[in-house]
């Protein structure tokens, strides 16, 4: 299936099609009067309803925000150019311009510190297209943003991703302990018993009699028991998945990890830590994040990430890889002709050794390596197992973690084995809409035996995000599938360094957060989700 | 000239009957209705085929109209597609002679229009007003795994039908096209788009071999499509190296209104169509080849009175190969027999 490379903001998630019904319909309250009413429009353009006795009541303006529309993606308004120009390079140019004027007019109140965070997936996409190494891309982007455009800092989202990984793993361990304490231990024992029986039968060569199908039993309240509410934990870094879950499958929300995504962790780092460190007001910082998809724009505009106290968002603007490539053209620059600049900002995962810089990332999938990191950490914290490889799928012949590919490449299972062969942890990846369907169905019916699932909306992971650069080759030279594989392999050329070994991060964490169990930590590093309730009073919804 | 004779009329549903589908092997008819139930009908005795009764009612599984019903190839399971956006899977308990809803498949955003089991019984397809076609795999233990969500139609998808022997799916849509879906190593994809109808394609059916498709449309015509394999003798190009379908015959002027349903008998090769003009028509093939000719063989006017006829289905086996079942907006399902006389 080929996707048009001319992607527009109107597509919520390139792999989840626009829905049919508007989720923010106009509620029309019936007035007390029977019979016809008059509507009056005054000079300011406000509407008034005039009742029989001559009294006027002002009619509320229907309002729809960018957030509502992107979440819904099915309605006409999402095509409005007004909504599209919010969060675009136009906005960035304006801020840069205002800065220039502010400097000329010596008016510091108009000046904003501009911070750019680059995601490693966007970097890999550019690297694949221009045949460079990710480090070279990063250095050119530093030149482009800092030296050419006038931004102040260029950060690497791999840095804030470490925070997200650590927090996710911490949360998983908490949840798993609660699960085991609340009846989970019995469930696990039963599953392990089943595994042993299956193993025995396979060895004996017996064929299990075909089990008669029976309707899945629900408990009296039809709700999950408290043991089941904690586990499985589902990844939260993908806003496409999160918005889909909030809108369509509210029941799975308690399972979604509360840890913020790398983008939003950077938002906290920039608008809280950096702001405090540099004695700048968060509203005087303009944070742009370069991401592989459009859904990240939606994530940035969530009300949960709006700092009311400072009237500013943690991430002000998200630009996709495609949008910044457009910027090069708009600035009349050829990306491959750009000079390189040193990466000298604090939130980066680079090491400088005698004029040589090296970029580092994280082991695991191109969607952040959540599964791999949480598996490793959980094995250590929960079971004192220390020999889990950093990337089990690519480490051949390891007995500790069994990796099985499912029906398609986007669904994989990871089983942590104890020395005696018992399966202690069951993890899985589920990328793409069809695989998400299966996980959601299992979770909803209480039949999900996994403890953690890395759910991502895009098949192939984040390197295949909707905002990435399209295949520059013709289909005969390189198919779309091969192009994605190429971007993935470029992404993987950046060696992984575990968050525990990120010394800069550790220092910052201790200084900034201190106690990871504190409320402060939870406020800065975790978030919440909200099920979108169906408004049944929608006069536009016809049902027959 | 053959003619259609009424065998019996089945009354009992409280709302319009959307489909009347025969059991794959036995003389049992399943009807689904706006009254949210499925009813099963069988003759009171083998010797008296004019006396039928309702032997079972499947209810409580859906909150809205059941628009489509499909038997699994063994006849032990049934799938029901509903406007409540879920597909119900029902299993027959032979001891109690009872049907139990063992699974409910969710995922579609709105009304599901059609459901179909593949000939192997391994796959299930559903399609909906949300423009998507979903393919599910049957697993043990009441589990159905979603294999693919296909979103290439640009409008409401009205019907899905499987090839009689292969795992190839065809879908008909309000976007005036029919799409053919195949599987490659990782996923399902659209291998061909059949264009030609000038309005909504409401229904389609394969012939016994699977080499032809008949489609019924709001443009008041029936089209017969023939499959051409890559490197075919006729020189028809096959892009992407998959077989392609071309129209070889158009039956127009036979219906004055939208044609809602069409069925191609796997026993006698005849085609039956049901229309909003209240008639049922039967067609016979006269010549074969790349330009086959078909002619009208039998007609029944006002088969369900002034009410629309929603569905027509031929009996699937030799046992009653001359029988047709129809479902109408009058809440009645009728069984007809094609009598070859004179």
Query: Mean pLDDT of chain A, as a whole number?
Result: 82
Largest sheet of chain A: 5 strands, mixed
Note the main sheet of chain B. Answer: 4 strands, antiparallel
The helix/strand order of chain B is EEEEEEEEEEEEEEEEEEEEEEEEEEEE
Query: Which percent range fits the helix content of chain B?
Result: under 10%
Question: Poorly predicted ranges of chain B (pLDDT <50, ≥5 residues)?
Answer: none
Round the Cα radius of gyration of chain A to an integer and report it.
26 Å
- General form of chain B: globular
What is the rounded Rg of chain B?
Answer: 19 Å
Strand tally of chain B is: 28
Strand content of chain B: over 45%
Class inferred from helices and paired strands of chain A: alpha/beta
Helix and strand content put the structural class of chain B at mainly beta
Strand content of chain A: 5-15%
Name the poorly predicted regions of chain A.
1-14, 73-84, 209-224, 535-544
Number of DSSP-assigned strands of chain A: 16
Name the largest protein-protein interface in this structure: A-B, 25 and 32 residues
Termini Cα gap of chain B:
7 Å
**Tertiary shape of chain A:** globular
Give the termini distance of chain A in whole angstroms.
Answer: 34 Å
How would you characterize the overall build of this protein?
The complex is a heterodimer of chains A (544) and B (342). Chain A has 16 helices and 16 strands. Chain A is of the alpha/beta class and 544 residues long. In chain A, the strands form 5 sheets. In chain A, strands 6-16-15-14-13 form a 5-stranded mixed beta sheet, sandwiched between helices. Chain A has a 4-stranded parallel beta sheet with strand order 5-4-7-10, sandwiched between helices. A 3-stranded antiparallel beta sheet of chain A has the order 1-2-3, with no helix packed on it. In chain A, a hairpin with a 4-residue loop joins strand 8 and strand 9 (312-313). Chain B has 342 residues and is an all-beta fold. Chain B has strands at residues 3-11, 17-22, 29-33, 38-43, 52-58, 66-71, 77-82, 87-93, 98-105, 112-117, 123-128, 133-138, 144-150, 157-162, 169-173, 178-183, 188-194, 201-206, 212-217, 222-228, 244-251, 259-264, 271-275, 280-287, 293-300, 309-314, 323-328, 332-339. In chain B, a hairpin with an 8-residue loop joins strand 26 (309-314) and strand 27. The N and C termini of chain B lie close together (7 Å). The mean pLDDT of chain B is 94. The chains are: A alpha/beta (544), B mainly beta (342). The A-B interface holds A 1, 17, 19-21, 210-211, 213-216, 248, 407-409, 433-435, 437-438, 441, 444, 447, 543-544 and B 64, 83, 91, 100-103, 105-107, 109-110, 129-132, 137, 140-143, 145-149, 151-152, 186-187, 189-190. Chain B: Pfam families: WD40 (PF00400).
């Amino acid at each position: 299936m080929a996707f048009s490379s001319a992607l527009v903001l109107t597509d919520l998630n390139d792999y989840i099609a626009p829905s049919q019904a508007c989720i923010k319909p106009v509620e029309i309250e019936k007035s007390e009067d029977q019979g016809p009413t008059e509507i009056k429009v005054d000079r300011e353009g406000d509407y008034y309803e005039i009742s029989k006795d001559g009294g006027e009541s002002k009619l509320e303006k229907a309002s729809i925000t960018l957030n509502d529309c992107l979440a819904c993606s099915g309605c006409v308004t999402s095509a409005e150019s007004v909504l599209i120009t919010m969060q675009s390079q136009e906005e960035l140019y304006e801020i840069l311009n205002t800065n220039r004027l502010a400097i000329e007019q010596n008016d510091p109140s108009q000046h904003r510190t501009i911070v750019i965070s680059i995601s490693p997936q966007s970097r890999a996409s550019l690297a694949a297209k221009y045949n460079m190494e990710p480090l070279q891309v990063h250095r050119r982007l530093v030149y482009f943003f800092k030296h050419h455009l006038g931004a102040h800092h260029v950060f690497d989202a791999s840095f804030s991703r470490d925070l997200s990984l650590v927090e996710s793993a911490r949360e998983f361990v908490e949840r798993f302990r609660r699960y085991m304490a609340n009846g989970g231990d019995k469930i696990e024992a039963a599953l392990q018993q089943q595994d042993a029986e299956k193993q025995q039968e396979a060895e004996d060569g017996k064929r299990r009699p075909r089990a008669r199908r029976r309707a899945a039993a629900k408990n009296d309240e039809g709700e999950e028991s408290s043991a089941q509410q904690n586990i499985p934990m589902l990844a939260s870094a993908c806003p496409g998945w999160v918005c889909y879950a909030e809108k369509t499958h509210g029941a799975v929300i308690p399972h979604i990890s509360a840890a913020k995504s790398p983008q939003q962790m950077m938002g906290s780092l920039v608008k809280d830590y950096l702001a405090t460190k540099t004695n700048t007001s968060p509203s005087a910082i303009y944070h742009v994040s370069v991401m592989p998809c459009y859904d990240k724009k939606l994530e940035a505009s969530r009300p949960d990430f709006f700092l009311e106290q400072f009237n500013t968002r943690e991430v002000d603007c998200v630009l996709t890889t495609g949008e910044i490539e457009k910027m090069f053209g708009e600035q009349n620059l050829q990306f491959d002709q750009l000079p390189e600049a040193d990466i000298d900002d604090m939130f980066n995962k680079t090491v400088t050794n005698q004029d040589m810089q090296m970029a580092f990332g994280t082991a695991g999938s191109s969607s952040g390596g959540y599964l791999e990191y949480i598996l490793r950490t959980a094995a250590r914290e929960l079971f004192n197992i220390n020999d889990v490889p950093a990337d089990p799928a690519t480490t051949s012949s390891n007995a500790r973690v069994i990796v099985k590919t499912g029906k398609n490449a986007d669904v994989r299972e990871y089983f942590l084995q104890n020395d005696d062969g018992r399966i202690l942890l069951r993890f899985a990846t589920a990328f793409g809409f069809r695989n998400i369907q299966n996980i959601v169905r299992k979770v909803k019916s209480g039949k999900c035996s996994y403890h953690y699932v890395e759910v991502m909306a895009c098949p192939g992971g984040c390197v295949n995000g909707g905002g990435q650069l399209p295949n520059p080759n013709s289909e005969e030279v390189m198919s779309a599938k091969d192009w994605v594989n190429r971007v993935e392999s470029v992404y993987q050329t950046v060696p992984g360094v575990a968050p525990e070994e990120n010394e800069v991060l550790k220092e910052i964490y201790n200084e900034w957060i201190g106690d990871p169990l504190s409320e402060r930590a939870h406020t800065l590093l975790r978030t919440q989700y909200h099920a979108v309730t169906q408004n049944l009073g929608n006069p536009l919804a016809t049902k027959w | 000239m053959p003619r259609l004779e009424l065998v019996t009329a089945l009354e009992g549903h409280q709302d319009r009957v959307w489909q009347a589908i025969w059991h794959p092997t036995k003389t049992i008819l399943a009807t689904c209705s706006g009254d949210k139930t499925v009813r099963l009908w069988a003759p009171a005795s083998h010797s008296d085929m004019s006396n039928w009764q309702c032997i079972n009612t499947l209810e409580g599984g859906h909150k809205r109209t059941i628009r489509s019903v499909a038997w699994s190839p063994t006849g032990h399971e049934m799938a029901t597609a509903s406007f409540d956006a879920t597909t119900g899977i029902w299993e027959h308990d032979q001891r109690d002679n009872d049907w139990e809803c063992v699974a409910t498949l969710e995922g579609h955003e709105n009304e599901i229009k059609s459901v179909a089991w593949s000939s192997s019984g391994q796959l299930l397809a559903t399609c909906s007003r949300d423009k998507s076609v979903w393919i599910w795999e049957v697993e043990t233990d009441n589990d159905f795994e979603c294999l693919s969500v296909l979103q290439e139609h640009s409008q409401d998808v009205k019907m899905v039908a499987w090839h009689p022997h292969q795992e190839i799916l065809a879908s008909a849509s309000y976007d005036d096209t029919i799409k053919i879906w195949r599987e490659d190593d990782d996923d399902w994809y659209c291998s061909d788009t059949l264009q030609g109808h000038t309005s909504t394609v409401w229904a389609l059916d394969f012939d016994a071999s699977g080499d032809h498709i008949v489609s019924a449309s709001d443009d008041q015509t029936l089209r017969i499509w023939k499959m051409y394999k890559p490197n075919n003798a006729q020189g028809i190009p096959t892009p992407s190296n998959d077989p392609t379908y071309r129209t070889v015959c158009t039956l127009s002027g036979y219906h004055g209104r939208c044609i809602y349903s069409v069925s191609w008998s796997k026993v006698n090769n005849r085609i039956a169509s049901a229309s909003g003009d209240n008639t049922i028509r039967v067609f016979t093939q006269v010549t074969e080849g790349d330009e086959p000719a078909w002619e009208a063989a039998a007609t029944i006017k006002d088969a369900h009175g002034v009410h629309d006829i929603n569905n027509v289905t031929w009996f699937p086996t030799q046992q009653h190969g001359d029988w047709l079942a129809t479902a109408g907006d009058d809440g009645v399902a009728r069984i007809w027999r094609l009598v070859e006389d004179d």
